[in-house]
Amino acid sequence: MILMLVTLVVAAEGAKLRAGQQSPRGAQEAGGGQFLASPDQGAYQGPGGGSPAYTGAASPPVAILAYSNQPVVGDGTYAYNFQGENGIQAQETGSVGGPEAGTSAQGTYSYVSPEGQTIVVSYSAGEGGFIPTGDHIPVPPPVPQQILDALAKNAADEAAGIFDDGKYRGEKA
User: Fold this and answer.
1) Which of 9, 24, 143, 165 could lock 29 by a disulfide, CB 3.0 to 4.6 Å apart?
2) What is the DSSP letter of 89?
3) Phi-psi region of 67 (alpha: psi -120 to 50; beta: other; left: phi over 0)
């Protein structure tokens, strides 16, 4: 019942836009405030100016300078790479296996940031998930030595048959 009502309301509203009529071009024409802007009105530049953003202009087509694609072959391997005139590059090799063999990939991609810096990401993907590396990717701090020592002691205790998992074991403990 509710779905039918919603459908009728949408159809009635859509019927209001006759051939040649257009919806308001911007948020202000539609009754929105000064901070609402449709993409064709330019980029919002926040109180402090902000970074370059979408300007509403369509991007020109980008020429592909290099492209190759080796689809999956009999042994389950594949490879591809491409390079665009805008500085975007990507290459990947991998293997597609069955449930036992798994699927894995490794590759790199790069692009030019809005600040003009070339960003390069290398990655591997497989059983351990997607693992990216790059100079711009934050690295976690090292694990403190006390934690490493505690983990080593726990592993040694478990190897010796000592399990301290916090469970009450009565007089055996």
Assistant:
1) 24
2) E
3) beta
Strand bridging mode 64-70 / 77-84: antiparallel
Give the separation between CA 98 and CA 59, rounded to whole angstroms.
41
Contact criterion met (CB below 8 Å) for 139 and 131: no
Neighbours of 94 (CB within 10 A): 19
**CA distance linking residue 172 with residue 161, whole number of Å:** 13
User: Is residue 129 predicted with pLDDT exceeding 60?
Assistant: yes
Q: With a threshold of 0.70, does the pTM exceed it? A: no
Structure-token pair, residue 159: 């190897």
| Strand ranges (E), the chain | 64-70, 77-84, 89-96, 103-112, 118-126, 129-133
The more confident residue out of 87 and 37 is 87
Res 58: pLDDT: 72
* 3-state secondary structure (DSSP) of residue 46: coil
Instruction: Read off the amino acid at residue 39.
Output: P
State how far the Cα of 94 lies from the Cα of 75, in Å rounded to an integer: 11
Q: For tokens 């926040």, what's the residue?
A: 46
Residue 104 in tokens: 């894995």
Confidence check: pLDDT of 50 > 60 = no
H helix and E strand count, the chain: 2, 6
